[in-house]
Amino acid sequence: MTRRGFTALTAFSAARVAGANERIRAGFIGMGARGDRLLDLFLAAGAEAAAVCDVYGPHLDFAASKAKGARRFKDYRLMLDDPSLDAVVIATPDHWHALQFLHACQAGKDVYVEKPLSLTVAEGRQMVEAAGRARRVVQVGTQRRSSAMVREAVEFIRAGGIGRVTAVRACDNLNEWPLGIGKQPGAAPPPELDWDLWLGPAPAVPYNPNRGWYNYRWFRDYSGGQLTNNGIHLVDVVRWALDLGYPRRIAAMGGIYAIDDGREIPDTLEVLWDFGAGALVSFTQYNANDAPANAQGADLEFRGAKATLYLRPDRFEVVPQRVAGRVRYRPGPLHREDTRAAWMASRKPAAAPKLVRGTATADLEHVRNFLECVRSRREPNAPILEGHLSTATCLLGNIALRTGAMLEWDGARERFPGHDAANRLLDYQYRAPFTRPS
Q1: I need a surface site. Which of 14, 168, 318, 386 has the fewest CB within 10 A?
Q2: Furthest-apart CA atoms within the chain: distance in Å
Q3: Dist CA 296 CA 405 (whole Å)
Q4: In angstroms, what CA-CA distances link 10 with 2, 148, 340?
Q5: Could you give the CA distance from residue 306 to residue 126 in angstroms, rounded to a whole number?
C-alpha cells in the first residue's frame, strides 16, 4: 500500500501549525451520514473544508456541494499529499480507521477520528504509538466527554456524591424485531461505488447491499457491532467517572435469539467486566425489546453506597439511598424482629435528590475543542489513549463472547495469559496489498 509522498514528509507539512487567527484547513474521509454531519459541524465551528473524499460518487457530490471549492478525491492517499491540510477527519467504517489514521499521522496531519477508534486491539495500540511519535493532536469521537452535563455527573461521582460505586449498568435497547436489516440477495455494486476500495483491508467478498453504509455494523469484518457502536459511549463515561483503566476479567453471553435476518452480531448480549479495585460494569444490548432498563429510562446506572445516579441523554438524576446508622443486628443468641425494626428505623437519606437537565450530545463542542487544540497543541477532551482503552474494553467483550470463556486480561501486555484462541482475535491479517505502516 505505497503511494507517492509517503516515503518522506515534506518539511512544510510536518512543521505547519495553524495560527490563533487562521482557519484550519481540514480534509474529510468518508462522506456518508456521519461524515456529512461532521462536515456541517466543522463548517459551523469555522474550519475550512479544503478536501472531501469518498469511494461512492453521490456522497462525494453532495459533500462537494456544501464544501464550496474543496478538492474531490476517491482515494484518501492522494488527499493526504496536500501539504496545506492541517487536519483530517475520519468518518469511514471501522475497518478503515487504523490504516487511514496511520497514514494521516505519517503525513503530518492532526486527526479527528470517529469512534470506535479501531476494529482490533492491536490496531488501536499502534495508533496510540504512531500519534505519540508524530506528536499529533487527536480527538476521538466520544462526544460525551465534551458535554457539560456529563462532566458535571462525572465530577459529582468522583467527589463522592453517591458514595463508593460497586456496580454500573449500561444499556442499549432497540426493537428491530421481526425484520431487522432483512435478508438481501447479492447484487452487482452500484456503478458509482468502488466496492474493492470500500472493502480495503477487509476480506474480499461479493457486494451485498446489507454490507454497505450503516448496516456494515452488523458484520464482524467491518465493525464490533452495537457494543462498539453505541456501547463505547457508555463504557467511556464509566471509565471516565470511576477513573478506570483496563478490566482484569471479562465474560459475555448472547446470540441471535429473535431476529431472522442477515446479521452476524447478536440481537441480545450481556457483557460483564471486573475492574478489580473499581466496580463491576455490565453492558446489556437488547435489539428485540426497547423497554427502559429502569424507571428513570437511563442508559447508564451508577449504584453507590449513598445514592444511585441515573444518566440519560437529556438529564441525570441522583436518587438517595437510606443509609443505616447502626449495625444491622445486635449480637446475641436470637435475632429478634424488634431488632430488625430498630435497624430499619435508623436508616436516613444520605443526601437530597438531585436533577440536572442538559444534553449528552455535544457534537459541536467536541469539534470546537479539537480545533482549539490543533491551534494550542493541548490535549483534547477525548485523547487517543482514552479512546483506545474504551474501544479495547468493548472489543474484549466481543472476544469473550466469541470464545465462550471467562477471560483474564493483562492490560500491561495487552494479552490474554494462556489463552491462544483469544489472543488470535486481537488482530487480523489485512487483505493484500493493504498493509499497516510500521
Answers
A1: 14
A2: 86
A3: 33
A4: 16, 39, 76
A5: 41
Query: How far apart are alpha carbons 41 and 47 in whole angstroms?
Result: 9
Instruction: Say which residues have a Cβ less than 8 Å from residue 93's Cβ, sequence separation at least 6.
Output: 30, 198, 216, 222, 223
Q: Which residues lie below 8 Å from residue 65, measured CB to CB, with a gap of 6+? A: none
- Residue 311 in contact with residue 300, Cβ under 8 Å? yes
Strands 48-53 and 71-73, by their bridges, are parallel
CB 3 within 8 A of CB 78: yes
Kindly report the backbone phi and psi dihedral angles of residue 196, in degrees, each rounded to the nearest multiple of 5, phi listed first.
Answer: -65, -40
Helix/strand/coil for 405: coil
Alpha-carbon gap, residue 113 to 45, rounded angstroms: 17
Three-state DSSP class for residue 341: helix
Class of domain 148-361+392-424: alpha beta
How many CB atoms are located within 10 Å of the residue 40 CB? 15
d(CA 194, CA 216) in angstroms, rounded, equals 16
Long-range contacts, 399-406 (Cβ 8 Å, 24+)? 399/250, 399/425, 399/426, 400/250, 400/251, 400/252, 400/271, 401/252, 401/253, 401/254, 401/266, 401/269, 401/271, 405/251, 406/249, 406/250, 406/251
Fold of 11-145+364-383: Rossmann fold (3.40.50)
Domain locations in the chain as residue ranges: 11-145+364-383, 148-361+392-424
- C-alpha 355/C-alpha 317 separation (Å) is 4
Backbone angles phi, psi at 436, to 5 degrees: -80, 135
> Would you write out the chain's pLDDT as a tens digit for each of its 438 residues?
333 333 333 333 444 566 656 899 999 999 999 999 999 999 999 999 999 999 999 999 999 999 999 999 999 999 999 999 999 999 999 999 999 999 999 999 999 999 999 999 999 999 999 999 999 999 999 999 999 999 999 999 999 999 999 999 999 999 999 999 999 998 999 999 999 999 999 999 999 999 988 999 999 999 999 999 999 999 999 999 999 999 999 999 999 999 999 999 999 999 999 999 778 999 999 999 999 999 899 999 999 999 999 999 999 999 999 988 878 766 665 556 677 778 788 888 777 899 999 999 899 999 999 999 999 999 999 999 999 999 999 999 999 999 999 999 999 999 999 999 999 999 999 999 999 998
